[in-house]
Structures are given as structure tokens and as C-alpha cells.
Specification:
Strand order of the largest sheet: 3-4-5-6
Shape: globular
Strand content: over 45%
Number of strands: 9
Number of helices: 0
Order of helices and strands: EEEEEEEEE
Helix content: under 10%
Distance between the termini: 23 Å
Length: 104
């Protein structure tokens, strides 16, 4: 995940990035100091939501993750104090009051 400063939208500047060589994010939602990433990694492939603390932007850090879900996460949206995900034929709410301890 790359963090950009969009103060001048015509010329965004690089601020920082979060990398994990064994995990591949596919969706992102941001609220305040946290980025919520849906992605997969491991063998067999395990889909999860991870929370990344983006303060300071130059060095974002891992804060926590959900348990695995049984299918590819198709959508990830932040709203009403929770992250909502869809996977397979399901929709789930991820409570984010404590980023270090997420629950589905």
C-alpha cells in the first residue's frame, strides 16, 4: 500500500508505504489514522482484513487483522464505525473499535 500526499492533486507526492511480501491487498478503505485492507496470503490462500496505522505516513505499521474468511473478499467499505465486507454470497460487519483485536 502506497501513501500519497494529495494536497496538490495535480502533483501528488510519495509519503510512505506498507509492504508484506507474503500478503497481497486487493481493497482499501480509510478512516482517520487507519487503513483497512482486504487481501490474501499464505498457503492455502487465506483472505482477511488487516488494519494499518498510517501515522506517521512515512512509516505505516500493522495493527491487527481478522480471522480468515472462506472466500475471496469482493468489497470493503467503512461506515458507521465498522468495516463491511462481502465475500461469496455473504456480507459481514467487522467491528473496528479496537484495531488490534478485530471481530467478524
Amino acid at each position: 500500500m502506497v501513501i500519497l500526499d494529495l494536497t496538490a492533486p495535480a502533483s501528488p507526492t510519495f509519503e510512505g508505504e506498507y509492504k508484506d511480501a507474503s500478503w497481497y491487498p486487493t481493497q482499501v478503505a480509510v478512516n482517520g489514522d487507519y487503513a483497512y485492507l482486504a487481501g490474501y496470503g499464505g498457503a492455502p490462500t487465506k483472505w482477511r482484513v488487516r488494519v494499518i496505522d498510517v501515522t506517521p505516513p512515512a512509516s505505516p505499521t500493522y495493527s491487527g487483522q481478522t480471522s480468515e474468511v472462506n472466500d475471496e473478499i469482493h468489497d470493503l467499505i467503512y461506515g458507521a464505525g465498522a468495516v463491511w465486507i462481502t465475500y461469496g454470497v455473504y456480507m459481514n460487519q467487522v467491528i473496528v473499535t479496537n484495531p488490534a483485536s478485530l471481530s467478524l
